[in-house]
Structure formats: C-alpha cells, structure tokens
Amino acid sequence: MTGKTARAFPLLGVLCAVLGVFAAPALAHDTLRSSTPVSNAVVSSLDLVELEFNSHVRYPVVLLHDAAGQRFPSGTPRTRGSKVTVDVAQPLPSGSYTVAWRVVAADGSPIEGEIPFTVRSSTAPLPSAPVSSAPVTSVPAPSRTPVSATGETDEQSGLPGWTWAALAGVLVGTGALLMWRRRKPAGRGTPS
C-alpha cells in the first residue's frame, strides 16, 4: 500500500463512524406510548379518545368503528405536541369497537395502528338467553388481525429512501475522492 492509500483508510473509517453515530437516531421510529382506552379494555362508556406518542406527531386521523365495520361519529382530532385527542360524538351502545389511527411521525413517516376495546354499558339492558329446546350455536364474530403490540406496521421496519440515497452519495463521493487522490499528476512518472 502506498502512503496516500494507507492514510485514506483511517479517514474513511472515521467518516463511517461519524455517519453511523448521526444515523442511529434516525433508525428509531415513533411509537404509540399510551392510549385511552387501552388495548382490549372493557369500559362502561367512552367520551374521549386519547393517544400519546413518544414524539411530536402531525396530521392525525382517528376513526371509531364497531365489529361489523360501522363507523361512529367522532370530532376532529386535536394535536398538542405528542398527544392526540378526539371527542366521541355520541354514547356508544354495548359491543366491541376499534379505534383506528394514523399520524405522521416527526421523521415524516406515517405510522398507524388499531386499538380494540369493548363497551359494557350499565344502562343498556343485557340480552336475555333464548328459551328453546334446540341447541344454541354461535357464529364467531369476524376478527381483525391486530397490528403489533407497539402499534407499528411492517412498512415502518425499513429505512426511508432518502437514507439510502444519502448513503449511496457518501460512498460514491468517498470513492471518487480516493480515485482522484490515487491518480498520478500529468507529466510525472513518465520518461521524457
């Protein structure tokens, strides 16, 4: 190895280390920290949905629907820093519900999730058991595949495209710099 090439390798190592340190925080995705209602909670009523994230979020969308997919009216989502709140417009009858949410994280990537919960209203009468001699059969309710425990989806697991483009640019620039430094100046090293 020539002296110039030997000096370039430590420089390249330092450059990679510095870029790695600054890129590490970008690998962490924002997540849902807590919610009201909590996942799989049983509540007597619900007036307000509250979502708290580990970082500031923007452009929230919050939908409330029952097990059959029927949407229930809710107010306009409000964002204050890392918290999103939305009013539930009307009392919910007893049953299974899901809060579906989607926000744009601080790094610009969308994150979404679902929070299933059940309302057991003390004011609503419980259905009585049918009186019949025939055997009772039950039809299983349709189930939705829940997102992971943190509310993250598969689309969040990779690096954003701009990260790959920046990394490629750094590698191409480093390669060009090394090639330029290795090039012999014109007129040197050739016999006259």
UniProtKB/TrEMBL annotation:
InterPro entries: CopC/D, CopC_dom, Cu-Rt/internalin_Ig-like, Ig_E-set. Residues 122-160 are annotated as: Disordered. Residues 122-142 have a biased composition (Low complexity). Gene3D superfamilies: 2.60.40.1220. Residues 29-119 form the CopC domain. Its main location: other. This is Copper resistance protein CopC. One of its GO terms (cellular component) is cell envelope. GO terms for biological process: copper ion transport; response to copper ion. The keyword NADP does not apply. The chain crosses the membrane at residues 162-180. Keywords: Copper, Membrane, Metal-binding, Signal, Transmembrane, Transmembrane helix. GO terms for molecular function: copper ion binding. SUPFAM superfamilies: E set domains. It is found in: Cell envelope.
